[in-house]
Every structure is written in C-alpha cells, then in structure tokens.
Amino acid sequence: MADLTYSQSPSKGSFGKLILRWILYILLALFALYYLMPLFVMVTTSLKSLEEIRTGSLIALPREITFDAWKTAWSGACTGIQCEGLQPYFWNSVLLAVPAVALSTLIGALNGYVIAQWQFRGANLIFSLMLFGCFIPFQVVLLPMARLLGMMGLAGSIPGLVFVHVIYGIGFTTLFFRNYYVSIPAELVKAAKVDGANFFRIFWSIFLPLSLPIIVVTVIWQFTQIWNDFLFGVSFSQAGTQPITVALNNIVNSTTGVKEYNVDMAAAIIAALPTLFVYVFAGKYFIRGLTAGSVKG
Amino acid sequence: MTEWLENQLPKMVLAPSFIAVLVFVYGFIGWTAWVSLTRSKLLPKYELKGFVQYDKLFASPRWDTAFGNLFTFGILFIVIAMVLGLVLAIMLDQKIRVEGAIRTIYLYPMALSMIVTGTAWKWILNPGLGIEATVRGWGFENFSFDWVVNPDFAIYTIVIAAVWQSSGFVMALFLAGLRSVDEEIIKAAQVDGIPTWRIYSSIIIPSMAPIFLSAFIVLAHLAIKSFDLVIALTGGGPGYSTDLPATYMYAMAFSRGDIGQAASSAMVMMAVVFTIVVPYLYSELRAKNHG
C-alpha cells in the first residue's frame, strides 16, 4: 500500500501542485490589488472634474483627464483663511526636514561611534536610557516642550520644530550607528591610535568612509519620520510655519465652500510624493531602517 | 594635559546628547507627572493635590470611550496585521517569480504619512460617493457601508486603514524571519516526507517566536501612538466615538485648555507603553550584553 501511493504521487502531486500554484498567484495578485486600490483611486480621482466625480463611479477611469485639481492643490486650495495651496507648506517641510535630518544623523553617527568603540563606564547605561527615549509616547513631552519653546522664543517657528525633531530623533539615529559600528573590529581603533591618529581623525578617516550604507538608512528613516510627522507639526507650529501634513489635513477638513474631492486627492499625493519617491528608489534601505529598530541587529 | 583631554573626548562628545535625553525625555516626563497631580487648568500650577486629575479622567465618559477604543482598535489591529502579515510572508516564501515587485507593492503604504492614508480612506469609505455608492451603482440598491459616519462602527474604519498601512511591514518582518530559519532542518523534514503545512506549523513558525514578539511590540507601539490617522480619517467622530487616548490628550492640551487632564491622560498612555515595552527592552539589552 505504502509503495503504491509512493509511485502514484508524482503525477497526482504535480497536477495538484500546479493548481495550488495558480491559486497562490491569484491570491497574491488580489492582495496586490488591495494595496494598490487606494493609490489608484487617489490618482484617478485627482484627474477627474468634480462633475465627473459626482456622477461617475469611484473606481472608473477618468473620462476626461484634467490637471486643474493639481493646480488648485499646489497653489490655490484653502487651508483655513489663506488660499495659497500646498506650495508654501511643501517648502516649510523641506526647510524643516533638511537641517533636522542632517543634524540628527551627524549627532547619531558621533554617538554611535563613541558607544560602540570608545566604551567608558556608564556608556551602556546612557545607551539604554537613549533607547528607551525612542519608545515614549510623545504626548508625555508635548506640554513641557510647548512651554520651553515659548520661553526660548521658538514657539511656532521652523527652527523650533527642527530642534524638537533633532532631540527626539537622536535615540534612533544613535541606535542605527551604534549597531553598525559595533561590528567593526576594535583592533582597527587600536592600530590607528598606535599610528598617532586621534579620536576625530579616526572617525573622519576610518569610520565615516565605511558608513555610507548606514548613513543612507538613517537619512531615509529620519526623512520619512520628519516629513510624515503630524503630532509635532500640529502642536508646535502656527499659521505660516505649518509643515505639509498639517496643511493637507487643513485642506481636507476645511468646511468652507464646496467639498473638492479631486483637490483633496491631488493634495494628498503631493504630500506623499517625496517619501514615495524615496521608497521607490531606495526601497532596500528604507526596509532596512524599518527592521533595524525591531529585529536584533 | 592633551592626553587627559584625549581621554575625556568620547565622554564630551556623548555628553550633550545625554543631557538632552535626561532633560527632554526624563525631565519632561517628570514635569508631566508632577502637573498630572495638580489642579492645573489653562496654566500649570505646581501645588500637589493628589490624584484628582486621574479620578476625573476615569470618571469622564469621553476618556472611557477613548481608552476602550484603544483596546478595541489595538487588539483588532495587532491580530489582523499579524495574521495577514504572516499569511502574505508564507505565500511569498514559495519561490514566487516576481517576489521583489510584489513586496514593493505590499510595503509602499508604510512610506506614506498617516494623514495621507486617512485622507485616502476617508474618501473611499464615504457613503455618498465611495464604496457604498459604487456597489449600489452596480445594482445592489440595498448595499450599505456607512461605517465611517456610524458611531458604533467608525472605530473599525480606523482598523481597516491602519491594517492597510502596516500589514506590509509585518510581512517584511516575517519574511526575513522565515528566511533565517536553518535550511538544513527544513530539507531534512522534507526528506522525511513531512507535509509543508506541518513544516511551517511545527518547525518554522515556532522558531520565529522572537520575531512575533518584535512585530507585536512595534504594532502595539503604533496603536498606542495612533493620532494622525484618527484626526485625518474621522477627526475623532462622529461625536467622540473614535477618540483614542492620543486624541483625547491633544484635545485637552490644545483646544480645551485643560492641562491637568492632558497631563494625566499622557501619563496613562505612558504607563501602557511601559508595561509593554520595558520587559521587552530589558530582555533585549540583557541578551545583547550576554551574547
């Protein structure tokens, strides 16, 4: 009995396997549709006229493609009393993200270098304290930070937001660099010291040139975090200095006038484009950043 | 002298960050904890009054809804995202030809801001022109899908959008885990004629326990911090039916001008994170120091 089934199984098995394989591919394709559907709906809605949105179907392709909604979203949509579109807020986010990403990455690299290669008593405790700082719900620092920014004269300003993002970003950036530098043999530092190189010289000439992959991971992680941030943006900005996420939310939830869904969708895509762009062109590094914090490195 | 300086340099480089973390993380938590024990309203007062704010918080029906929602939302979100992520990872692990492209599609929502995700789903779920209208347009006149404006069901729309955003990430975590299982063991099991589903359920999945834990921690953390998604998708409504602790805290701090309530609700959020994250971090750090 046993060897009978054995001899039959190849042909039967391969047919069953073929069907299973088909089911598998169909399921995978259906899930791909599920993930793509909102993006598809956003893009098609943004290219339709309001008239067509009201009469047509959610998932239909636009009968007539128009870029009016995109123009309005970029330079005419109202975020409250002002109607300048997303444009000024887009640049706010750029002005905010560039220095915040650069500073937090640089500080993280130096911290990681110290913790991984220049161990002193208490360094591990400091690292643990910083690591824990990554996990706090930011609500718990919102009130005192608002007061501090007010006292420093930075309330509602972009430099104030840069400051906040750097402070609460260094936990993660330090973690990234520390985990990367820890795998570099300590002999390297010892040998360089024997040759007379000092602390900064070793960092500059030996560690930094080795760091390109982790710099890319950290920059992408920080950029995504800061660009997509809403909580700090909405808490610590005022009219005129708001980042793009806050402006997008104001456009979508403004109650004045006719609800322009096509403008909302165009605005949402504009707000998403920079991080989507990063994801498409540097996806590998993006995923490495995502998993670095959660999988033992 | 220079040698002394040279030796102190690493400490001096780390010191500013250390002080920043002490002040802006731990000092600020301390400040919030202190203020949560006072009768602060629009402005902070520093005279301690015991647990009045917490009594008020737990007596507030709005907080009751927000805290209850955290568990409804959190549990559904974590369970669905984990199951979906695991299923997708196992399916993708079957030597799929276009795996890279599929992975890219499954994971892209993670690159989006929650505000973008909320905006998109708000449009898709709106009964007047979204899915409900579309299905009715196909001839199912009685089809109804008004969850986003229905106070009893609105919280589930948050789950839908949050799962859409994060499940691809869980898939990526699990896929990495599946790939890290020792191939020799799997081959040996295959030679022994053990069916594939048994290989998964008895060998591969149990060996991924640490990854389940990581995924759980990350998702739980996301759930507790969820704020933007609610603001963009439902604004906490209808009424305050989709309030979460994060939106409650924000409303108290910045629109109601009730600092005492804001501080005490933030401290409760902190406590929830503590109970989940601290044991995890502790074991992680211990494992690192010993390994």
Which oligomeric state applies?
heterodimer
Helix content of chain B: over 70%
The CATH first-level class of the largest domain in chain A comes to: Mainly Alpha
Q: CATH first level of chain B: which class?
A: Mainly Alpha
Tell me the strand percentage band of chain A. under 5%
Characterization of this structure:
The complex is a heterodimer of chains A (297) and B (291). Chain A starts with a helix and ends in a 5-residue tail after the last helix. Chain A has helices at 2-46, 50-55, 68-75, 87-117, 123-133, 139-151, 158-181, 186-194, 199-210, 212-228, 231-236, 244-253, 261-292. Chain A is mainly alpha-helical and 297 residues long. Residues 1-11 of chain A have low confidence and may be disordered. The longest helix of chain A has 45 residues, at 2-46. Chain A is flat. Chain A has two domains: 2-66, no CATH class; 87-292, MetI-like (MetI-like fold), CATH 1.10.3720.10. The mean pLDDT of chain B is 88. With 291 residues, chain B is mostly helical. The longest helix of chain B is centred in the first third of the chain and has 34 residues, at 2-35. Chain B is built from 13 helices and no strands. Chain B has one domain: MetI-like (MetI-like fold, Orthogonal Bundle). Chain B is flat, with a radius of gyration of 24 Å. Chain B has helices at residues 2-35, 52-59, 61-92, 99-107, 114-125, 131-137, 154-180, 183-191, 196-204, 209-225, 228-233, 245-255, 259-290. Chains A and B meet through α1, α4, α5, α6 and α7 of A and α1, α3, α4, α5 and α6 of B.
